[in-house]
Amino acid sequence: MNFSIMFDKEKCKGCTNCMKRCPTQAIRLIDGKAFINSTKCIHCGECIKICPYSAYTPEPIEWYEEMHYSSYKYKIAIPGTPLYGQFPKKIDICRVQNAILKLGFDYVYDASWAAEIVAKAIAKKIGKEKMIRPLISANCPAAVRLIKNRYPSLMDNLILLKEPMEIGAMMARERAKKLYNLKDDEIGVFYISPCPAKLLAVTDPIGNYKPSVDWVIPLNTIYGDLYREVLSQDNKTCSYPSTSGIKWAVSGGQSESAGLNNYIAVNGMENIIQILDEIENGRLNDVDYVEALACVQGCVGGTFNVVNPFVASSNIKNIISCADYECINPDLDRFEELYESGVLKYRLMEENNPNNFNMKEAIERSEKIKEITDLLPGLDCGSCGAPTCSAHAEDVYNNQSKLYDCVVLRANEKR
């Protein structure tokens, strides 16, 4: 697996904040320093947010050099839906796309246009597929990988539609090839991302397709330059984002954009885990759709964003309520063609296929781990280097630690 989060061992003080916050229990404390199990990490960015010593940082992505010194003849930017929420309400959002062009791009294809297309696909898929309930959104890569790692029995609940980032890149690339007679390797597609999980979706997708995005730009790395351009230019000859599509930036926006009524919108990892527990226990079979976004308030809460997520959410809602323009979505009229051709959909890679999940083996493993957990004190103190007693029991089961690494158990044995 590729990795999008860097860890500086020298800065780590062994405080256990990250270990206790990690939703997949991928972090352990070894010799007083944090250690990330990359096979469990879902790149949600919670460790980046919680570490008081800045020991975790996003992988450095030199977008400027990649764009300006590459062989790409034509460079496309795909701004994520949270981007517009990063600017004050007084800013005319028409200026944002022009500002992106000023940074050296040749064309901007707004992710909100693609989100509008995917929303229609969600509504159609929910209407057609009645056997599985609830269906779960696949737009958030961190939430999808949480399900893969922690709830494999729910993988077949995922609504396997490509996310707006991928659809936008695919449509923009197709347009550039037709208009300018370019080849694929002459076109560079750059996604302006709110979070590190999007990088992993490009470098290590769970689906059986080659991503159309070439490079991911963390929003916070270009925000200063972008903001200055927004303030300095006054050209208003641009395309506006879709007011329906930019709803995707905020929790519940996908479902609203798709016109759904019977849905649950959940944001924040702890809340997602609670809802997934409910689904796994069969208590939400009367719900059509669960929209799960790892960050608080939705994608506006991503690690790469600059503005407070609640402020950004308010800014997005203000744009929608005050919109006095008509959005011209360049590909919305192609929806039926795109849906029927199957390009909006994907299949899971073989190793991610739920048919490979062995329920009997999983139950046996769970029972053995519970037996080990019952031997432990249940204090979840973290002194063994694992976040909880059950996590330590899992490590013992996997031969990654020893039972008596538990200091409480060791002390009681001595007495």
From TrEMBL:
<dbReference type="InterPro" id="IPR007202">
    <property type="entry name" value="4Fe-4S_dom"/>
</dbReference>
<dbReference type="InterPro" id="IPR050395">
    <property type="entry name" value="4Fe4S_Ferredoxin_RnfB"/>
</dbReference>
<keyword id="KW-0411">Iron-sulfur</keyword>
<dbReference type="InterPro" id="IPR017896">
    <property type="entry name" value="4Fe4S_Fe-S-bd"/>
</dbReference>
<keyword id="KW-0004">4Fe-4S</keyword>
<dbReference type="GO" id="GO:0051539">
    <property type="term" value="F:4 iron, 4 sulfur cluster binding"/>
</dbReference>
<dbReference type="InterPro" id="IPR017900">
    <property type="entry name" value="4Fe4S_Fe_S_CS"/>
</dbReference>
<dbReference type="Pfam" id="PF02906">
    <property type="entry name" value="Fe_hyd_lg_C"/>
</dbReference>
<dbReference type="Pfam" id="PF13237">
    <property type="entry name" value="Fer4_10"/>
</dbReference>
<keyword id="KW-0408">Iron</keyword>
<dbReference type="Pfam" id="PF04060">
    <property type="entry name" value="FeS"/>
</dbReference>
<keyword id="KW-0479">Metal-binding</keyword>
<protein>
    <submittedName>
        <fullName>Iron only hydrogenase large subunit-like protein</fullName>
    </submittedName>
</protein>
<dbReference type="InterPro" id="IPR009016">
    <property type="entry name" value="Fe_hydrogenase"/>
</dbReference>
<dbReference type="InterPro" id="IPR004108">
    <property type="entry name" value="Fe_hydrogenase_lsu_C"/>
</dbReference>
<feature type="domain" description="4Fe-4S ferredoxin-type">
    <location>
        <begin position="32"/>
        <end position="61"/>
    </location>
</feature>
<feature type="domain" description="4Fe-4S ferredoxin-type">
    <location>
        <begin position="3"/>
        <end position="31"/>
    </location>
</feature>
<feature type="domain" description="4Fe-4S">
    <location>
        <begin position="364"/>
        <end position="415"/>
    </location>
</feature>
<dbReference type="GO" id="GO:0046872">
    <property type="term" value="F:metal ion binding"/>
</dbReference>
